[in-house]
Amino acid sequence: MKKLIVIAIIFVVFLGSCNNDKNNPVNSIKGEINIESKESNEETDEKKINQGNHETMETSESIDNKNDTNKEDEYVLSFSSERKLTDQDIYDLMSKYRDLDREGIDLAKNEIFARHGYVFKQNKYKEYFSNKSWYIPKENMSMDELTELEWYNINFLIFIENRHFPQSYIESSQNDNNRKIIKNHPYEIYNSNEVVYCDLNDDGVEEKILYEKVYAEYNEYYLSINDEKVEVPGGDGFETFAIVDIDENDKFKEIIVSDSGPSEDYTSVFYRYDGEVIQIGNTEGAYGDMIFSGDGIFVTRTRGEILHTWFYKDTFILEEGIIRNIPQELYYMGACVFVLNPVTLYKNREKTEKGITLNEGQIVKISYTDNKEWCLVERENGEKGWFYLEDNYYINDTGHFPAEYFYGLCFAD
Ligand SMILES: [Ca+2]
Ligand SMILES: [Ca+2]
Description:
There is one protein chain. The protein is an alpha+beta fold. The protein folds into 3 domains: 2-169, no CATH class; 185-327, no CATH class; 332-407, SH3 type barrels. It contains 9 helices and 21 strands. The protein has helices spanning 2-17, 25-42, 46-67, 71-74, 87-96, 102-115, 123-130, 148-164, 169-184, and strands at residues 188-191, 196-198, 207-214, 220-225, 228-231, 240-244, 254-259, 267-273, 277-284, 291-292, 297-303, 311-319, 322-326, 331-339, 343-346, 354-358, 363-369, 374-378, 384-390, 394-395, 406-407. It has a 6-stranded antiparallel beta sheet, covered by helices on one side. Strands 1-6-7-8-9 form a 5-stranded antiparallel beta sheet, with no helix packed on it. It has a 4-stranded antiparallel beta sheet with strand order 2-3-4-5, with no helix packed on it. A hairpin with a 4-residue loop joins strand 17 and strand 18 (374-378). The longest helix has 22 residues, at 46-67. The radius of gyration is 28 Å and the shape is elongated. One calcium ion binds next to loops.
């Protein structure tokens, strides 16, 4: 059991590395768990531990006697010590308490500790649980009293907390990226349906540029440069376009027209003018997603091909008038997931040597992928292993979908 506590603490700490919010209640709870587990490790007297367990049994009996009638009202999750929590439980909880926030999930998690009489250090928990008729504080409560199932549920709730609420690692990492992009952008943005003058080919003569959105049954988009007009592909083009100098060492400036697509699958088309309008390439991502370094290389945001809905930084180069992709061996996915069922990984990207097994109730990070077949999973302690997707759907040779093993994958349109 002590080993399990250590494991649980490791995952709490690991999740911290996926979470940028320093004020997150998880961290304060992490502190509480650490303090208590330290005490329990020191408590080597078997007699004491047995006494502790006995007291817990008494406590749970008295809980049942007191609260048979209003169990649902007395708990956020009345069954969180009895069975594994599922995604559905969280959705039910969210529909039951419409104003359920991060705090609510945090309370659900602490409720598991409180059931064993955990004495909270922070006033907000002290006050909340002292108002529950079932809560009996127990000064010498040992973390060893928590069952494997309860640790599973605590980890699950920690994962939910970070996934569903605003300061989640997912959103904060995206915000960070956006901030960087805004700081670095050297492009200029212009409105559609307004004539713009800019020398695009460095011949000392400004081009007359017009990007038109024509609202008809189907939206139509046209780019006119001087006397030439081309139709721009797309279904939901931006109200603006950008002029950028991708490579400061050539004489051209480039025009980028971005489109938000049917479900925010942003795409961009690139044009150059050299006496005629030339489409030089297209990428995913809008110009606002891109970082230009001025040397012909730029980065955009591309949707990943495998496992779930995710995006990666995709590098392109403008060479000899054409934009082409620079493929990478591995792409950073960085998806923190909760393990629902044990899965054994491979030591390397060959289907021969099996390595570590991920156990249910763990939080791990799917860090890198070749974006074709293989994904690298990392544990907080640095242990790594690979799984592959069979026929693009199933994990390894199991015939089961990734969502059966990992909770937290995103399957958006
Ligand atoms: Ca010119
Ligand atoms: Ca240039």
